[in-house]
Amino acid sequence: MKLRQIAHSRTGDKGNVATISVIAFDEGDYPFIAEHVTAARVAALFAGVASGPVSRYELPALGALNFVMKGALGGGVTRSLALDAHGKGLSSALLDLELPELAHAGRHPLT
């Protein structure tokens, strides 16, 4: 199952730092997401993109995780030759992360 089946995301950027928030559609899925979407997995997924560390911040009251990736924007928006210099495509790549199947059928109605 893809992460996008149970969560959506938002991104941000500041200089050469990209942030990606992963937000569960259903708050009951947050513990599952927190267990399987680790900083190590995100760092491995973006190994060719982020040259610095990846930090994870948990926001359980919001059912969200926030990942901060340093060195992920090719030097920053004004210095990068990347077509997606603001990192918006990074959230789509993260939502393609493969997860184990959930034991329940509580999926977002749009998936």
UniProtKB/TrEMBL annotation:
Q: Spell out the protein name for this chain.
A: AtuA-like ferredoxin-fold domain-containing protein
Q: Which residues form the AtuA-like ferredoxin-fold domain?
A: 1-99
Which species is the source of this protein?
Bosea robiniae
**Matches recorded under InterPro entries:** AtuA-like_ferredoxin_dom
Record's PANTHER family?
PTHR47708, SI:CH73-132F6.5
